[in-house]
Automatic annotation (TrEMBL), chain A:
Stretches the record annotates as Disordered: 562-589
PANTHER family xref list: FHIP FAMILY PROTEIN CG3558, RAI16 PROTEIN-RELATED
Protein name: FHF complex subunit HOOK-interacting protein C-terminal domain-containing protein
Listed transmembrane segments: none
Ranges of residues in domain FHF complex subunit HOOK-interacting protein C-terminal: 740-828
Pfam families per UniProt: DUF5917, RAI16-like
Family: Belongs to the FHIP family.
UniProtKB/TrEMBL annotation, chain B:
Family stated for the protein in its record: Belongs to the small GTPase superfamily. Rab family.
Full protein name: Rab-5
UniProt key word Nucleotide-binding: yes
Keywords carried by this UniProt record: Nucleotide-binding
InterPro entries registered for this protein in UniProt: P-loop_NTPase, Small_GTP-bd, Small_GTPase
Record-linked NCBIfam families: small_GTP
Amino acid sequence: MRRWLEKITSPLKPQEPSSDWVRDELYSGTPTAVSRKRWSSAYASDPNEWERLFETKWTVVGDILERKLGDPEHKVVYDELMALLENMTNMCTLLMLEANSQPEPIIGPILDKFFTEQILERVLDWAIQLTDSLKSICQLAIIRIFDMIVSDSHSQNHCLLVHKPILNPLFRLCEWFQRADWRVTITENKKTSEAEKMFVLLLNQICTKLVEDRTLLHFFFHSDQFVVFTELIPFLYSIGDTGQLARDAVLLILSVSAEDQTIAEYVTERTSFCQVLTTGLSACFSQLPRRILGDGGERLVEDAYRDFLADFHSALLFCNAIAQTAHPDVAENISSYFYTGFLTNVIKPAFLQNDREYIGASMVYLQMCIETIDEPVLVKSIVRMIITERDDNGTLFFEIIISYVKGGDKTSVTALSLIDSLLKLACEDVMLALVFRPLLTNHSATKKQLSVIYKAERCGRLSQAYLDCIPVCMHRFQKIVSLSLLSSYMHSTRIRMTARAVQCRGWQWRYDGVVAGSFVLPAESDDDATCHVSISRKSSAGQSPVSMAPYTMNRYADGSHLPPSISISKPGPQPTTNSSPNNVHADLDEDGDFILPPIDMEDVSEEMTASKVMTQSTIDYMHISGLDGSESDDALPIRVEESSETDTDAPKSTFVLSGWRDVQDMETFCQILAKQEVKGERPPIEQIEQFITEKYESLISGGIEKAKEPTEKKVHSARTTNRLVVTGGFSIFNFPERSKLLATILEGVETLCENELPFNTELLSLIADLATYPQPLLAFYLFDPKEDSSEKHLLSILQSVQTRIDVMAEGIEDFDAWVEKGLETLAARAVRIKHESMTTAVSQKTRDDSTLLYGKSTMPPPGRRLLIREPSHQETLDDQTARRTALAAIMLSHLCQMLASIVLQQSLIN
Amino acid sequence: VCLDDATIKFEIWDTAGQERYHSLAPMYYRGAQAAIVVYDITNQESFQKAKNWVKELQRQASPNIVMALAGNKADVANKRTVEYEEANAYAEDNALLFMETSAKTSMNVNDIFMAIAKKLPIGPAHGEPTGTVDMNQPQQQQKGSCCK
């Protein structure tokens, strides 16, 4: 923490003969090192001299104290104060000299004098009676004295604070600061902030000591007080160094006490730390600008707001660091206030305003949160808001975001970018809400089709199909369509898909149409479209690519803010360091000729990759749910299960039907039956009855004897209760809606030629992230052509866009020039954004796709004004069409090559 | 609110008034063009606290900030402990707008915003809509209002 001292204090002043130097020292902030300098060289090794000097000084001080004691009416004058302070300071210097000179912690004569004469206590008693103007000077000096006591001792000796006669005055000093009236009566802001800064510095020094010697902790935490910690709370969000010192101190003290349950309880229940922490975030947010400049991808703020943006960002980082280092109970508490005090109180209302631009800005800020915060407990809060919060009409938060994609303006771009950042989390809950739940009920894939997703034949065929969608007019541009570009896409997508697969490793389901079995959902029976997904699922958020920290390096990232002896007990997830694809290897030559992989004439008649052993109950189930009444064997019966236990010992590839197989008695069977939901068109009653009878009989033969009549009655009641019975979860079948997100994406691609560049850039980036997900269900939806022509699919859309571009390109004069211009625009934008974003953290995503994603959106950089604008002269309609067509052509070409490489890489998934 | 030919959009921040959040208040009022300090007419202590807030704002907030004092809960005037005249006199001495309001019946709520709007200097600072800070409310919300 030395650097802090150096930072905030000015250089040493030359020695002055009079006692004025003391005053100057106190006012200018020169450290007490000055006094040490005067003394230590001459008296470094003579303890007797120290003692003698000490006695002299103490006499002076004692007299001054006595004077006031004897005559309460006596008004202390300035010079008197200065004399006392000077001598006190010197006395403490001597005290430290003595303490440091001893190899063991013994009580030397000077320290002893402090005890017996209760020096510090008496000085404080005296100081309280001063007039206001003198009081503030005195306070500052006393703080400095304590600072000396704390920080000037070498660590091998114990800290002097362990002694009550030293510690108690310190507590009193803290109390003094706590009194609100003190703050209000101070009229000069400068002095206030100076004293505050010194005070916080002192606390910070104490926390450093605590780290070095944990036994000190119980001196500060006892009898229902946690002195140092409580004092720091009001300063958490102070401006400048004070705030930073306070935050560092709090982090230190919480890391030291991270294992202590009692302290954790105290912090959460007896202090307002968590509330202030998260409310402070709201306060930071309130200072942010309501509009972001730029085109939505490129983001800028005016200079005046630059600091506020930095404050917000560092507040997020701090929250994250606390959640990472503190006791889990504290982290949990913070997470909960983060949700109520910040997310739902401030972020959510921001999205519900009727100000489109402000919503766009709020999207950027929310994206900042998502990209800055990686501690799972906090990410969980964010995810929770996104997938469970609703507006007054019942629209879910993420649906609101998606709805803003329409419009083509800046806010549409920020919406896409925000969604993209959600995709990058690779959180199963989010993906379930956005994509998989609708897909599970509304996809057209057969099991056969899903089973060949990773097969080379499909992948090769499809990748060729995507390459065929490249506009013909682009073929002649080597810069845009070439084997080498394709190779670099192959390389970069390989890396990204591997990373994505790693992120998805913790997921519960594979979404391959096979083991889609039981959803574990909490009981939310009043609302079947509720996405109250159990967020106990492991979120892979921690492994997502590191946040883009544009201007404040994450000072907490490597633990360097903590002293070396501390290891963060819960190491935060480290940014995934993938190898830099900037070193595009030349050894991609294996693909140099880009030969399609040989078609694998595997026996595709294999109906199911699932285990061929389907238990009887599985088939039974398929019967009763009516699914194979009208559909082939390839149908996917998926059922929501209300119990939370899955058959853990069931063979992996069978349907997970919890309970059916194990049903041994009639009662349970009937119970489960009663809870059965039957989808849509029901099979004839007789069929159901027959099945039930069969089952019944099999149970009977299993040795269970029941009277016929009661069972018949039960059967009857089971039959008549074939209405929707509310289960513990909610039914997949009652989710008729298709994925809004996927639909929106396809619409965006359809209008590629009309969209503006920033929109297309974000859109393609989003598709790029989505397409890297390995799940067959999604892969099929995105890549495979659909037989049902009423359902739009990407390939056909790309084909029609391709046609459109080619046709329009023929009609455009000097199309090549427009293409060149388009390339220039893209390149310039990319350079600008990279230049402005100051990505200190390696953001592999951007680098990977520099081929496609010129000008990937970034966080608002520190207030750089717009340097270059797009020419804002009035465009003719023809020119606008030409410009957009050229850009769309370039984008489409890149998109096709990227998709081709992704789908090809799917064959490498095992 | 609509004022003459102009539309004024209020970005309102409701600060938490409890003592523990006091240190965060500057972040709210620093950039604000207006502030409403609310007290409870049935609670003399809240009036004293309101005065402290006024003092703080006068000292720390922007010198041009438009300040209003609102005596809330006017709907239960029978339980009042702060007299209208007392508060009004204080407001006059300190150049504050003053109204007794009731959030429950909406009495004077619109009016106080209108009064603030009238007092605001023409043209917002930094091209931003005006920000108003509400002091002494327990809950935090953000509302924006625009006339139809």
